[in-house]
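Structure tokens please, single chain.
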Amino acid sequence: MRLFAISLAAVALIALPAHAQNSTDQPKPKAAVTKKKTTVPGPSSNPEYDVYLNGRYIGSDPDPRVRYHMIQEERGRHDDGGRERPR
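Here you go.
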């Protein structure tokens, strides 16, 4: 058993420098950096579907009724509806 332990230690001492020498010869692979693309809503591929109000992009939809409602909703956000403002 003692001979086995000595043999194992001798093999480890011989193998470690050889392993260390090989690891410095080869550059370590760098971690892959992937950039996640963030999609920002913008004009559609068909400009006919785009909705602009006062030069500002509101949205896109192929249905003209939906585009109409988009304009009405956007106008309603900036309009007080004829009500007086609270003091």
